[in-house]
């Protein structure tokens, strides 16, 4: 494969970034039959790619990816970007069925497919993490983990409140960084959980599997807001692959991702989250059952499975018969 690395303007600004170089010259040089843009259709880079496609390779078909599960209004020029891009695109790959329904409501009438994120089962698997456990001084008791961005909408306040009511021995492992970090540490202190809790700043993606191997239970307690809900929850599939029991709220796509491989509670409901935690702490057999179900379910999310589905999308777009 040929891989080109290019610099961008506005890194870290979500869909507002765009390329400083190469994208136009590469489209002109390659004259691709198909451009697979792993971006939302309203993003600046989508508008940029469409501009260069129209200028240098108008025959190229475009497939794009979307995770959005809510009809959110964005300021101009993003609605204009989206309208033009959707009119020109040939195919939409959606991360969930709900994302597909939202895409249709946004006016896209061309073919779509639901293809989720994948998980690398060679990296996310059981491994010996004794050295890491000793480094963090994790005590020999049930470890409940949250791994991800520290934001208020991730429901971490509800999780802390539920943990404070458990009356059980456990470790609370938090791996991540974000604007809610200071408030979260205050909540942990106020709820008497300081001795139970280990905070670890965000780690590179290749190390996430090591921290999942420390966990017995992973919780994703996300809260829906007017502008956001959990669009997939990749950490859930990664935890399934490692063999960690799951608890998730009913925000967005979480119930669809977990399926029967874990427990779901109504978002923001501390009492229900507490009961789910107690079930998995007090019933090791149930926890083991969910681990087995997760191991089976994660086969739907392997990169081989994702690649095969995208391969068939490409053939459909290009009119190649099986």
Question: Which descriptors apply to this entry?
Answer:
four-stranded parallel beta sheet, alpha/beta, 13 helices, six-stranded parallel beta sheet, 322 residues
Percentage of residues in helical conformation: 40-55%
Q: What structural category arises from helix and sheet content?
A: alpha/beta
> How many beta-strand runs?
12
Q: SSE order, as H and E?
A: EEHEHEHEHEHEHEHEHEHEHEHHH
How would you state the average pLDDT, rounded?
A: 95
Descriptive overview:
With 322 residues, this protein is an alpha/beta fold. Helices cover 41% and strands 16% of the residues. It is built from 13 helices and 12 strands. The strands form 3 sheets. Strands 9-8-7-10-11-12 form a 6-stranded parallel β-sheet, with helices on both faces. A 4-stranded parallel β-sheet has the order 3-4-5-6, with helices on both faces. The longest helix has 16 residues.
Concise account of the structure shown:
The chain has helices spanning 23-30, 44-56, 78-88, 97-105, 130-136, 156-164, 181-190, 205-212, 234-242, 254-258, 270-282, 284-297, 303-318, and strands at residues 8-9, 18-19, 34-37, 61-66, 91-94, 112-114, 142-147, 170-175, 197-200, 217-220, 245-249, 262-265. With 322 residues, it is an alpha/beta fold.
Topology of helices and strands:
Layout: E1 8-9, E2 18-19, H1 23-30, E3 34-37, H2 44-56, E4 61-66, H3 78-88, E5 91-94, H4 97-105, E6 112-114, H5 130-136, E7 142-147, H6 156-164, E8 170-175, H7 181-190, E9 197-200, H8 205-212, E10 217-220, H9 234-242, E11 245-249, H10 254-258, E12 262-265, H11 270-282, H12 284-297, H13 303-318
Parallel strand pairs: 3-4, 4-5, 5-6, 7-8, 7-10, 8-9, 10-11, 11-12
Antiparallel strand pairs: 1-2
Helix pairs in contact: 1-2, 2-3, 6-11, 9-12
């Amino acid at each position: 494969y040929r891989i080109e690395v290019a610099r961008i303007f506005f890194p870290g600004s979500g869909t507002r970034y765009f390329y400083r170089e190469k994208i136009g010259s590469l489209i002109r040089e390659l004259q691709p039959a198909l451009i697979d843009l792993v971006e939302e259709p309203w993003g600046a880079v989508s508008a940029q790619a469409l501009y260069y496609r129209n200028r240098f390779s108008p025959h190229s078909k475009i497939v794009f990816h979307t995770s959005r599960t809510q009809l959110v209004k964005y300021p101009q020029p993003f609605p204009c970007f989206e309208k033009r891009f959707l009119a020109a695109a040939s195919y939409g790959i959606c991360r969930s069925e709900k994302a597909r329904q939202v895409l249709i409501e946004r006016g896209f009438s061309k073919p779509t497919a639901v293809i989720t994120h994948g998980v690398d089962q060679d990296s996310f698997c059981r491994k010996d993490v004794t050295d890491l456990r000793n480094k963090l001084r994790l005590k020999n008791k049930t470890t409940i983990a949250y791994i991800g961005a520290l934001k208020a909408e991730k429901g971490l306040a509800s999780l802390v409140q539920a943990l404070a009511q458990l009356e059980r021995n456990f470790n609370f492992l938090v791996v991540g960084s974000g604007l809610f970090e200071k408030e979260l540490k205050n909540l942990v202190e106020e709820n008497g959980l300081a001795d139970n809790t280990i905070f670890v700043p965000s780690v590179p993606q290749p190390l996430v599997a090591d921290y999942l191997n420390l966990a017995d239970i992973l919780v994703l307690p996300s809260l829906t807001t007017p502008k956001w809900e959990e669009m997939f929850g990749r950490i859930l599939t990664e935890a399934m692959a490692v063999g960690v029991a799951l608890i998730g709220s009913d925000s967005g796509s979480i119930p669809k991702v977990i399926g029967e491989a874990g427990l779901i509670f109504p978002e923001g409901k501390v009492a229900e989250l507490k009961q789910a935690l107690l079930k998995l702490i007090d019933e090791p057999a149930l926890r083991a059952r969910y681990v087995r179900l997760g191991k089976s379910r994660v086969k739907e999310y392997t990169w081989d499975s994702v690649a095969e589905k995208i391969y068939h999308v490409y053939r459909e777009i290009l009119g190649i018969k099986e």
